[in-house]
Amino acid sequence: MKEFTIGKNDAGQRLDRWLAKTIPLLPAPLAQKYIRLKRVKVNGKGSKRDIRLNVGDVLQLYINDEFFDRPTPENAFLSLYQPKLNILYEDEHILLLDKRPGLVVHPDENERVNTLLTHIQAYLYQKKEWSPYWENSFAPALCNRIDRNTGGIVIAAKTAEGLRVMNQKIKDRELSKYYLCVVQGRMAPKEGKLEGYLFKDEVKKQVYVRGRPGPGAKTAVTLYKTLAVKNGLSLVECDLITGRTHQIRAQFAHAGHPLIGDGKYGSERENRKYGRHGQALYSYKLAFHFTTDAGPLEHLNGRTFQVEDVDFVREYFGAWPEAGREPSSR
């Protein structure tokens, strides 16, 4: 419990607005709940949220100590009262999440609260499965990342053991990540491989594809398969052999088939033609095929997880290809 005495500078404020100013980490819905439960007392009694405070009023706040901390990037999750996550799978060690396009995965200089990682932290904190205030607490972490404007499956570790094993499996390529994208024109051949070397321009935050290696270049290999063709567009499935920054976007643009909606590697004129804002790219399927012992994650071996719906498939092709929708997991 913490106690505050109202001075002249705070007098005249509504109780709920005083709480918002004094405890910025406390979400407004939770503050309202605490007021209703009389965990916020004015002069020893429960009160209403719209009461006006007077000089000399004594407030007793029965609120967890962490909400009184100074806001920092590390505790921003506390301000999320209802974390928004689309969970495909969860067990003791990991989460598989369907990230929506437009959501950044990690806090950065532009956004520290509304990020995938922050929502995960808030979710686990509210489930009482994790807290940064526990001694030697492990922090939930992402095992893979997806660009802000790309949607799809992200793996999050809930435990240190889960993080260690999953990161090793990713490093050893014992899982496959499949993407769907919509590109301009028809791929020739319909199924094949894109290979090259990616050079990254750190200033422009853009990569370039070249046919030969060079200083700073990284190999990039993408297997692709055309699933459907309609109205001059192709729905393509990609299997990433390497996982480089902007790999799919840059390689298809270099091949003469940029992704629709891609403002960095595509054509603005074509994007306007199709009314697409943000690249038509989705990490829609994840398959686990462990060749060595996975310890606490062994139960995932042989399983495949897939998102239920991808908006641009419906928008440009009407439905999933004739082969039909695959199950969410098998």
UniProtKB/TrEMBL annotation:
CDD domains named in the record: PseudoU_synth_RluA_like (cd02869), S4 (cd00165)
Broad class of enzyme this protein falls into: isomerase
InterPro entries: PsdUridine_synth_cat_dom_sf (IPR020103), PsdUridine_synth_RluC/D (IPR006225), PsdUridine_synth_RsuA/RluA (IPR006145), RluA_PseudoU_synthase (IPR050188), S4_RNA-bd_sf (IPR036986)
Sequence ranges assigned to domain Pseudouridine synthase RsuA/RluA-like in this UniProt record: 93-254
Record's keyword terms, sorted: Isomerase, RNA-binding
A GO biological process held by the record: RNA processing
Active site: 147
Catalytic activities: a uridine in RNA = a pseudouridine in RNA
Pfam families: PseudoU_synth_2 (PF00849)
Keyword Metal-binding applies: no
Gene Ontology molecular-function annotations: catalytic activity, acting on RNA; pseudouridine synthase activity; RNA binding
Domain of life: Bacteria
Its EC number(s): 5.4.99.-
Gene3D superfamilies xrefs: Pseudouridine synthase, RNA-binding S4 domain
Family under the similarity heading: Belongs to the pseudouridine synthase RluA family.
Annotated PANTHER family: MITOCHONDRIAL RNA PSEUDOURIDINE SYNTHASE
Function noted in UniProt: Responsible for synthesis of pseudouridine from uracil.
Name of the protein this chain belongs to: Pseudouridine synthase
Organism of origin: Flintibacter hominis
